[in-house]
Structures are given as C-alpha cells and as structure tokens.
Write a structure and sequence with these properties.
about 140 residues; alpha+beta; Alpha-Beta Plaits; four-stranded antiparallel beta sheet; about 20% strand; globular
Length: about 140
C-alpha cells in the first residue's frame, strides 16, 4: 500500500444499529470515495470489548463503555483510501455531539456523548491495533 493509502476501523455502535443508521453511515463513507475492505454485523463479546478499550481501563466511564458497546449488535468495517484515518474522523464529527458540526454523522444524528453512533480509529497505530480485534487479515479484500 502506498504511504498515503490507509486503513481504518469504523464501528456503527449499537445505538446506530438500533436507529437503523447503518446504511446512512456506510453511504457517507462511500460517497467520500473510500473502499470497504471488510464489513460485518456482530455482537461484541466482553473480551473483545475489553481488548478494544484497554486504553480506558481504570477510568470512571470504562464499565459503562463496555456495557454499552456489548449491549446489542454493531457493524464493523474497514475502510481504505488516502488519509482514511483523519478524513473518517472528520466525516464522523466531534466525539461530543454538541461540538460536532452539522453535516457530520454525529452532528446530524447523535445526541449523547456515550452513545454517539460511530467509532473510528484515532490514529494509524490505533487502526493497526483495532482492526485485528474484529477481522482476520484473510477477511479483508
């Protein structure tokens, strides 16, 4: 992969699935020109959730975060394209919905910080850590 081509993990969290926003989220990334290299719906196990959010272990919101992300099905996808990590985060919008610009996923659909529709890797290194939690390399096209 050329250096400017990146992969990033995107999750449509349980609240986004419950609210039938999966297609809208996928559409926004496809319209931006990103390729989907992996896509699946799953119910995250506590073990995988703890691996994913290990960096937050010990923080006040950790247990609530684990409880929420395992509360129902989510959709995991790997996006690929130029600057995928940073641009995906712009498409998603700020973590806190009241800070998210209208026109972003969170700005248009989220109303709570903890249940904010989507997750996206915050760096190339995070993506490299997170993607294998959800996908085997052989699952990616």
């Amino acid at each position: 992969m050329p250096e400017s081509i990146q992969r990033t993990l995107i999750l449509v969290k349980p609240d986004g699935v419950r609210r039938a926003l999966v297609g809208e989220v996928i559409h926004r990334f496809e319209m931006k020109g990103y390729q989907i290299r992996g896509l699946k719906m799953m119910k995250l196990t506590r073990e995988k959730a703890e691996r994913h959010y290990a960096v937050h272990k010990g923080k006040a919101f950790y247990d609530e975060l684990i409880e929420f992300i395992t509360s129902g099905p989510l959709v995991a996808m790997v996006l690929e394209g130029p600057g995928a990590v940073a641009i995906a985060r712009k498409v998603m919008g700020a973590t806190r919905p009241h800070d998210a610009e209208i026109g972003t996923i969170r700005g248009d659909f989220a109303n709570q910080t903890r249940q904010n529709i989507v997750h996206g890797s915050d760096s190339v290194e995070s993506a490299q850590y997170e993607i294998p939690i959800y996908f085997e390399e052989s699952d990616l096209v």
